[in-house]
Amino acid sequence: MSYITDTIKYLKQSSPAQAEFYQATEEVLNSLKPLLDRNPKYQKHNIIQRIVEPERQILFRVSWVDDRGQVQVNKGYRVEFNSALGPYKGGLRFHPNVTAGTIKFLGFEQIFKNALTGLAIGGAKGGSNFDPKGKSDNEIMRFCQSFMTELYRHIGPTIDVPAGDIGVGGREIGYLYGQYKRLTGRYEGVLTGKGLNWGGSLVRTEATGYGAVYFAQNMLAERGDSLAGKTCAVSGSGNVSIYTIEKLYQIGATPVTVSDSNGMIYDERGIDLELLKRLKEVERTRLSRYVEEHRGAVYTPVEDYPPGRNGVWGVPCDAAFPSATQNEVNEDDARELLKNGCICISEGANMPSSQGAIDAFLAAGIAYGPAKAANAGGVSTSQLEMSQNASMIQWTFEEVDARLQRIMAGIFHTASETAKEFGAPGNLVLGANVAGFRKVADAMIDQGVV
């Protein structure tokens, strides 16, 4: 497959120092060999080289004034990667580690994730190296207003519809939307994750976490098993993690871990969900506070993790839900999970497993749900919010949740059947990549060289 090798080589020359982007493209492209061998039309139309290049990359300065009156400057990004299936759709991430490579890898993954949902949305991503932690509400508002003052000219309800991601929750979406409305004079569905009383959708907050659990249920059901009664390890303590935990409790499983950038909690009795919500959603404080109210729980700071490992994945569990950030599960972590009896991985974060970890999961034959399939619940419900905005109505929680469950079951079925079609039953990495790529690539061919 010299054209795949040549494409990756070209990317490394044309987009230097973007390791996460290379990782994402290699993971997808290397799994496409069975499809490309069977269908020479994709090489004829040079789809590989076209699909790895964003249709548009926007880089801009974000100047804002902090509470001391000092002018601060951050970088802003929006990568509109592919619109073959519909308007660009993908979140905004505010985090000090955000780079052009981070946004490109997330946008590339978003293309195929969105394609798998079966909904009419293309792939995009954006964000900034701004860190909301430790900032006042007024500082965050001023930053968001400055960010939107540039971004607004590039987005629209049938052009590009951003959502939230790490560091961008309901508060940030509110400030961004208010500035968009001020600049354009239009009240329209140009952002998702909005407040429920001004255009938001029920279940949107819960969707990514709920969706990861629904996907795990589908994987285990095909194997004659379920999550009921299972002990589960969950990483992170943000939106995805919290609502993964909530749904696990609802179906009779026991989540025993959470983590943040400073350390992890292990509570063998089960994570106290209400306390976690208070600490992270209300007080916005560190997880170390958890043990002040739960003396039986154990807090382990990051510096005490095993060398080269993530401490969360050393806890014995039946199922694991990586829900924090990219590359949080390396090959050693994967082998530790397998050694301790883990039979199911459902990824709530974007690209949380390294290639070595993925290879270990696939070789072990466990139920492994890759991120672009397992964490598609968030973007799916974002599109449902777009549908509600377009018709100016709001569906009930039960209706949106039922639609989400059907979408996640559909994604699983598509990935599973595609894996079987190409002689790799159970390999949902291959199934998801081939199914997502094929849908986008066929649309690109239909629409000509654009």
Tell me what you see in this structure:
It is globular and about 60 Å long. It has helices at 2-14, 19-30, 33-38, 41-44, 47-51, 100-116, 137-151, 170-184, 207-222, 239-250, 273-282, 290-293, 331-339, 355-364, 371-374, 377-391, 397-421, 428-446; strands spanning 56-65, 71-82, 88-94, 122-128, 160-163, 231-234, 254-255, 257-260, 263-266, 298-301, 319-321, 344-346, 367-369. It has three domains: 1-53, no CATH class; 55-187, Leucine Dehydrogenase, chain A, domain 1 (Rossmann fold, 3-Layer(aba) Sandwich), CATH 3.40.50.10860; 207-374, Rossmann fold (3-Layer(aba) Sandwich). The chain contains 18 helices and 13 strands. The strands form three sheets. A five-stranded mixed beta sheet has the order 1-2-4-3-5, with helices on both faces. Strands 7-6-11-12-13 form a five-stranded parallel beta sheet, with helices on both faces. The chain has a three-stranded antiparallel beta sheet with strand order 8-9-10, with no helix packed on it. Helix 14 (355-364) links the parallel strand 12 and strand 13. Helix 9 packs across helix 10 (239-250) and helix 9 crosses helix 16 (377-391). The mean pLDDT is 96. With 450 residues, it is of the alpha/beta class.
